[in-house]
Design goal:
The protein has 322 residues and is an alpha/beta fold. The strands form four sheets. A seven-stranded parallel sheet has the order 5-2-1-9-10-13-14. The protein has a three-stranded antiparallel sheet with strand order 7-6-8. The two termini are 14 Å apart. Calcium ion binds next to helix 2. Keywords: Magnesium, Transferase.
Length: 322
């Protein structure tokens, strides 16, 4: 089977690690997986291009992630960041470790030599053994795009970079809306639309529905490909007990006027979603009638629990394919 998943950072990466664990345990393999990663979080700092969600996916699947944090490298040191601080260089609110800097330096070098982001991601992913696991990691687009958040500060409307809102302000300033700078002239990266059209199964992991999955969906052609694919599209709800498990998905949903409920999130995918996994605790709240809904435990507490979630998503997909 060929599977395709859309993904943000930590939630997407942890789920996909469980999905790969599950796929390896099946006796109908081998299976392959294409991941379409969000690049709306990307930012240029200290002259370096940083792709937080793609790196979280790569480090998590390649065994280099800081498990407790969910992002960044394990056994990290911060010498470069301290040196930058000594010069008064800003920003200081975005944590960048020394090993992580290595990734950003080599990516910026290759981009500077004229390679596309897709080409660069493919080279980086080699080192982390993704192709050996049957995984192709694609950025959603090669066009530089950046999610900005419109906020009101001191009586004035301002657009700030998503990372400034999320990391520096911890999403504490009410967002009025999200805009993706550069998206008006962006095109899907090579392979993205075909990966959706030609998949046997498409999965939406429990990534942030607004600023991760929502941004991937705004790439021209992606929604149409999801509507047109013959593959079942299965979503995994990022809410457990009516609240996000981590991060500020509630603030993001509030900003776009969508209820913080499994129904609210499913509504964002209504034009293409076939199956919806919700947590047992949320089962009674779900009213969507034109969807195949299954309630299973949705806490990614360890690899086995996550693989069980992935197994439920794959089984639901196979049922709907028949
Ligand atoms: P980010 O880019 O690092 O913010 O990560 P994602 O967008 O991929 O995922 C963030 C989402 O993952 C949040 O909305 C969380 O609610 C969700 N999430 C994190 N851990 C879990 C979990 O154990 N279970 C479920 N169902 N969702 C989770
Ligand atoms: Ca992200």
């Amino acid at each position: 089977m060929h599977l395709t998943a859309l993904a943000g950072g930590v939630g997407g990466a942890r789920f996909i690690r469980g999905l790969l664990h599950h796929l390896r345990s099946r006796d109908d393999g081998p299976h392959t997986l294409t991941i379409i990663g969000n690049t709306g979080d990307d930012i240029t700092l200290f002259g370096l291009r940083i792709c937080p969600d793609l790196d979280t996916l790569m480090y998590t699947l390649g065994g280099g992630i800081h498990e407790g944090q969910g992002w960044g490298r394990v056994d990290e040191s911060f010498t470069i960041q301290k040196e930058l601080a000594a010069y008064g260089a800003s920003p200081q609110w975005f944590g960048l470790g020394d090993k992580d800097f290595g990734t950003h330096i080599v990516r910026s070098q290759w981009l500077g030599q004229g390679q596309t982001l897709s080409e660069v991601v493919a080279r980086l992913a080699q080192r982390w053994g993704l192709p050996d696991q049957g995984v192709t990691l694609l950025p959603m687009t090669d066009t530089p795009v950046e999610t900005h958040v419109v906020v009101e500060q001191d009586g004035e409307q301002r657009a700030i970079h998503f990372q400034e809102w999320w990391v520096r302000h911890q999403a504490s300033i009410p967002a009025q809306r999200f805009v993706v700078a550069g998206m008006n002239h962006a095109t899907a990266a090579p392979g993205v639309l075909d990966a959706i059209r030609q998949a046997d199964l498409v999965i939406l992991p429990p990534s942030n529905p607004v600023v991760s999955i929502g941004i991937v969906l705004s790439v021209p052609g992606v929604r149409e490909a999801l509507r047109g694919t013959t593959a079942p599209v299965i979503g995994v709800c990022p809410l457990v007990g009516g609240a996000p498990v981590r991060g500020h998905a509630d603030a993001c949903l509030d900003a776009i006027g969508v209820p913080v409920t499994p129904d609210g999130v499913a509504g964002l995918y209504a034009d293409f979603l076939d199956g919806w996994l919700v947590d047992k605790a949320d089962e009674s709240s779900v009213t969507a009638s034109d969807l195949a809904v299954r309630a299973v435990p949705l806490l990614m507490s360890d690899l086995e629990a996550t693989a069980d979630m992935a197994s439920a998503a794959v089984e639901l997909g196979l049922e709907l394919r028949r």
